[in-house]
Each structure stands twice: as C-alpha cells, then as structure tokens.
Amino acid sequence: MEDVVTHEDWKVCFAQLGPGLVLFARQFVRTSADAEDIVQDAFVRFWRKQHSIENRALLYATVRSVALDLLRRDARRARREADASLEMEHTTAPQFDFDDGSQRALAAAIDLLPAEQREVLVMKIWNELTFADIGTVLGISQNTAASRYRYALAALKKNFVAHE
User: Fold this and answer.
1) Strand extents, DSSP E, the chain
2) Which one-letter DSSP state was computed for residue 160?
3) Does the pTM of the predicted model rise above 0.90?
4) What domains can you pick out in the chain, each with its CATH number?
5) Please, is 19 exposed, middle or buried when counting C-beta atoms within 10 Å of its C-beta (0-12, 13-18, 19+)?
6) What is the pLDDT of residue 99?
7) Residue environment code for 94-129, b if the CB has 16+ CB neighbours within 10 A, otherwise e
C-alpha cells in the first residue's frame, strides 16, 4: 500500500513542479521539447537514487546537471561533425577519365551495386584497405568484408561489358 502512496506522491510532485522545472531547463536549451526531456531525465535520476521529493533544491540541481550534460554532449557532437566536415573538404573524389566510354560504363556499373558491396569495393580498391580494416570500419567480420568484395566483383563481371 505504501508503494501506491509513494507512486502517487511522485505523480503529484511531477505535476506540481514539472512546469517550473521545464521553465528552468528552458534557459539551457533552445526548444521546449529538449527542456521537457531534461526534466523527465532528471526526475528519473532523482527517483532512481531514491531522493526525498521534499528536497526541491536537489531536484533543481539534478535538472541543471542533466541540462549541462546535454549541452556538453551536443558540443562534443558538433566538434566531431565539424572535424568530419573539414576532413571531407580535404578529400578528393575518385576521378575517372570519362572520355573513354568503358570508364563511364564501369562507373555506372559500380553505382548499381548494393551499398554494402559498393562501400567494400571502394575501400578495397581505391583506398587499399585490408579486409580486416574494412571489417573494423563497418563493424563486420573480415570474412564478411571479403565476401561482399567477391560478390561485388562477380556482379561487376556479370553486368559490365567493356567497350572494345
């Protein structure tokens, strides 16, 4: 019976304090949805640690902590994405001599491969990665990477007819 009362107390606490906590969390983030997520996460943390619902200051501190964690996580993600964008700017796409009709046909045949085969083929041929490296990049075994490579070559052999 006490669990029902405790459960009801948490519901009442959330109903009473939720709007104010969302307003408090809103100062850290851009959207109301993010603020609501922060408050929900904070309540879950607070409840899991079995803190007293009477300790309002600790509840607000938990909301602040969750909000700052979210901001740090977003900042790290933005830095990683910016670094990846810079790396992409420094890479060059494979260049084909499209004056030769067979090169154009080969590029078209590669584009028709399933994505999982095409990415292995590109990593193996143009980037000279080993199957072990390809497996690590894609989160697959090196045997799977080798199989995809063989399937890609077989499909190219079947579908590509070189212009003589």
Assistant:
1) none
2) -
3) no
4) 2-90 (1.10.1740), 101-159 (1.10.10.10)
5) exposed
6) 60
7) eeeeeeeeeeeebeebbeebeeebbbbbbbbeeeeb
Q: Count CA atoms within 13 Å of residue 133 on its CB side.
A: 10
Task: Please give the Cα distance from 128 to 122 (Å, whole number).
Answer: 8
Question: How confident is the model over 80-104, as pLDDT tens digits?
Answer: 888 887 776 665 555 555 566 677 7
Nearest to 13 by CA among 36, 47, 49: 47
Using left for φ > 0, alpha for ψ between -120 and 50, and beta otherwise, residue 64 falls in: alpha
Angle, helix 115-125 to helix 131-138, in steps of 10 degrees? 140
Distances (CA, A) of 109 to 8, 100, 102, 117: 64, 15, 10, 12
